[in-house]
Design goal:
Layout: H1 2-9, E1 15-17, E2 29-32, E3 35-38, E4 44-45, H2 50-57, E5 63-65, E6 68-72, E7 75-79, H3 84-95, H4 100-120, H5 135-157, H6 163-168, H7 174-181, H8 190-194, H9 196-200, E8 203-206, H10 212-223, E9 227-229, E10 234-238, E11 243-246, E12 251-253, E13 257-259, H11 263-269, E14 270-271, H12 277-291, E15 298-306, H13 310-314, E16 320-324, H14 336-343, H15 350-363, E17 366-369, H16 371-374, E18 384-392, H17 394-402, H18 406-422, E19 433-439, H19 441-448, E20 484-486, H20 497-524
Parallel strand pairs: 1-9, 6-16, 10-14, 13-20
Antiparallel strand pairs: 2-3, 4-8, 5-8, 6-7, 10-11, 11-12, 15-18, 15-19, 16-17, 17-18
Helix pairs in contact: 1-10, 1-20, 3-4, 4-5, 11-12, 15-18
Bound molecules: flavin-adenine dinucleotide (FAD).
Length: about 525
Amino acid sequence: MTSAAFLSRAGQKVLLIEKNKECGGLVSSFTRDGFHFDAGVRALEDAGIIFPMLKDLGINLEVIKSPVSLGIENEILHIENEDSLLKYRELLIKFFPESEGEIDEVLRIIRKVMKYMDVLYGIENPVFKDLKRDRAFLFNKLLPWLPKFIFTVGKINRMNMPVEEYLKTIVTNPALRDIIAQHFFKNTPAFFALSYFSLYLDYFYPRGGVCNLPEALKSKIIEYGGEIRTETKIIEVIVEKFLVRDQENITYKYDNLIWAADLKTLYKTAKTEGLSADIKSGFESVKDNMLKNRGGDSVFSLFAEVDEPPESFRKIANGHFFYTPSSLGLGETHREELTYLLSNFETIKKEDIVTWLDKFTRLNTYEISIPGLKDPELVPPGKTGIIISFLAEYDLFNKIQKAGWLDEFIAETENRVLRVLSDSVYPMLKDKVIACFSFTPLSIETRVGSSEGAITGWSFQKHMPVINKIQFADRSVVTPLPSIYQAGQWVYSPAGVPMSILTGKLAADRVLKRVTKVNKKNALK
Ligand SMILES: Cc1cc2nc3c(=O)[nH]c(=O)nc-3n(C[C@H](O)[C@H](O)[C@H](O)COP(=O)(O)OP(=O)(O)OC[C@H]3O[C@@H](n4cnc5c(N)ncnc54)[C@H](O)[C@@H]3O)c2cc1C
């Protein structure tokens, strides 16, 4: 959508093709029984990208701050500013008094990372600035910032190891390590994970729901003359002929294509007949690399309609809440124990999986979002909609579906999650839930066509199939295929909404540069 908005603004003939009824992908919302729910991301982080993009496009999006709370068992902390780190320290020490020195060391590193983040996001992202015209920005902000940026990038790249490994070098108690890191994706680079304290302070919420961000972009695309075609799924890219084909066998001709969806799908569906041997071999080698990698962790989300006013929830925590009901930590539950279950799935009894689920739901960390606490208009009077989610393994749901008891497993999961939370932080969930339903990793795969139901692109590996260094982000949008660019969460790691937007703009810039070059060449003929 970012690419389409900027290209149509530049006067290009743009067609945005989307397989679903609505645009926005993982930035989407829906309403059920008068309750508003966000289906994907729960709130947004500017990261020096979203607001500059909106400003550049002249979009006035009404937003509300989305404060975060963190909780362990019956201790809850509301993050208000950088000083909240001291409260976080106290919180951790309450549960792990013998680890005070190690906690101080972790906090020292988090503070250091926060300083790096201040540099990284210290200025509006220059990609959204017109550097030829905005000389004040260029000379007063960008140039003085660059040396600090380069210095910081060096420091960040040195913190690329998985957060679990990184914490092992500082913290001896595995439970403490889990409590700090278990709600991050497996093997999240240490810098990215430890930067979350800064990101918690950055969260905002579009009034009316996160869907209002794609809605605003959609209006801009149409205003600038772009065309949007929904319920159209691309099933083939015929590279030599500059054509894409949809599920109805309709083809669309392009001069330039920006693929902003799952990359395994692009590499599987692209037909390279007729291309030169060089291009084909470049394509095959990238394809190989893509197909042997996996999407990162997925998520299980429970949506509940509760007959209790938002105020009762507000007394407990903010509308965006990371809550761990047990200070014991997940340990090997989501690693070795889960791997064992998956590798021996055919011989393991259903009861064993449910026993594992019991433990997993008791020890996990939940991301809880209450839209009505961010915008009171989003719930029926006196009632509350609550979204409870946790990171979930796609393979488990896939195997259970194939074994024919997915609905049962979902119901078992819902019951346990509601029980764990009503026995701990939200007693009203015991008997005030009017209705509840869930999305699994399989729903995400089906809905947005995301490999392994991944919600932020690739799983973290030592060798990533895409660019993972910020200084090379510009190259992330290039593919080995002529006139085809790529954007979105699959083209850079680590990704999320801001990076998807940034790569969308970078891809649009590449296309415009190419179009200008071709036009100049034609003018000379
Ligand atoms: C529960 C949850 C929490 C999250 N929390 C955060 C967070 O705190 N911070 C953060 O930054 N990010 C977060 N994310 C991740 C973030 O939402 C995504 O990384 C981002 O929205 C990805 O955007 P995208 O446009 O690259 O991809 P997508 O949103 O996947 O969009 C791809 C689009 O392409 C369409 N499509 C796919 N295949 C085809 C095809 N063949 N033909 C036509 N159309 C097709 C899809 O329908 C979809 O609309 C979260 C996600 C979830 C689900």
